[in-house]
């Protein structure tokens, strides 16, 4: 009986350790504005920013999953989709939860501002006109980690609207 129990526990341990982890899926969405651009007047200049929003299904804080998001953001920002006359291009990544998911966002897009920014925003990437790429990690609506790197050569930008 003890041998049978030992064999069963060994097999269960092997089965659990062999279980493949699910990779994160990144899905682009739009918020209530239905626009990807915003502008602000600073020191007499109209600065234009482009914001892109992404939902991350199966999000985890594992290094492998974070590197997938990091790689996606870098590829997206250096893909040549943006215009050189824009000050910044910003990417925002939210983990999928019961309140932050595609169905909930479609039903009530303002919830991204009202709820998701405080609870489910996990990463922000900003490509500045001066070729700096800034990465921010968020927890409960607060920046908990940030770093910047210089991209050389700077990518050529061209904006394409996303529906």
What does this structure look like?
This protein is an alpha+beta fold and 163 residues long. The protein has one domain. It contains four helices and seven strands. Strands 1, 2, 3, 4, 5, 6 and 7 form a seven-stranded mixed beta sheet that branches. A hairpin with a 2-residue loop joins strand 6 and strand 7. The radius of gyration is 20 Å and the shape is elongated. The termini are far apart.
How would the blueprint of this fold be written?
Elements: H1 2-18, E1 25-29, E2 37-42, E3 45-57, H2 63-77, E4 88-95, H3 102-107, H4 111-119, E5 121-128, E6 132-139, E7 142-150
Parallel strand pairs: 3-4
Antiparallel strand pairs: 1-3, 2-3, 4-5, 5-6, 6-7
